[in-house]
Amino acid sequence: MNTEGKSVSRILSHREGCVQPMFDAAPIGPLSPSSSLLVERRDLEPISWQSHLLRDQLLHFFMKPAVIGFSLKDAAIAKIPVATGHAVFCPREEWHNISWDERISVLSVRMPDSAFMEAARERLTEKSLEIVPKHVVTDDRLTHLLFALDAERARGYSAGKLFVDCIEAALANILLTSFNTFAPRSIPGKGGMAPHVLRRVVEFMHANMDKQIGLKDLADCAGLSLSHFSFQFRASTNQSPHQYMLQLRIERSKKLLADSRLSVLDIGLEVGFRNQQHFATVFRNSVGVPPSVYRTQL
What we know:
Elements: H1 3-9, E1 38-44, E2 47-53, E3 57-62, E4 66-72, E5 78-82, E6 87-90, E7 95-100, E8 104-111, H2 113-123, H3 140-154, H4 161-179, H5 195-207, H6 215-222, H7 226-237, H8 241-256, H9 264-270, H10 276-287, H11 291-296
Antiparallel strand pairs: 1-8, 2-7, 3-6, 3-8, 4-5, 4-7
Helix pairs in contact: 2-4, 3-4, 5-6, 6-7
């Protein structure tokens, strides 16, 4: 491990396998395809008080207005009003008590230490990584990302692992740049990847289009860290890796639709869509008509 990695790991040790329940109620919908980003949506009835000790960074994203009672240890109780689209950061390594008097709807997102360590490796050299807890966060970028994450959860994560990985990387970078104790430096090399590196990554995407590859697979192909890869890929293509992969899938599916022996479902699966509905939706948004209609126009 290099010096930068050591300075980060002294602040955040990766507690893999140490998962504590967010709430007693069961989450709504499927589990995230990510092995690191835990996403749970719950509609919760009023409670008096619950006590929590969190090891990882946790955000509660509120889907409707609420008033939350909050206190740390023996401190005075605070009543915290939150609006739809607001997020609450929960403090790490401290026992805290929470309550609510009315039914709440919340998306809970646990950010693993590994995501912060990956982002910090490129952006913090001699300073420590320390996300400052905030009772209520009103950040348009976080709101947009978390609404997109909840919409993807509601669709059964049909966009796959790469989409969730891109959301995780973006969340980690926002928290690092906006809520860290020390201001991080900008990532160098924003001019984009070397042409031969970008070509290698795109060839890898073509070769694995039918698989659920993750962001780390692409970063490893480029020989870059996750955060550096994400910035450089966008600088080179003006798209996120997930958006670019969708474009490749649509372009290949348009060619396959010329073969009448293949069903629309078979084509969608062959280019990496997990179900026909998601394929039809993405195709229509990109091309203007569903794949079945596009085929009749060839």
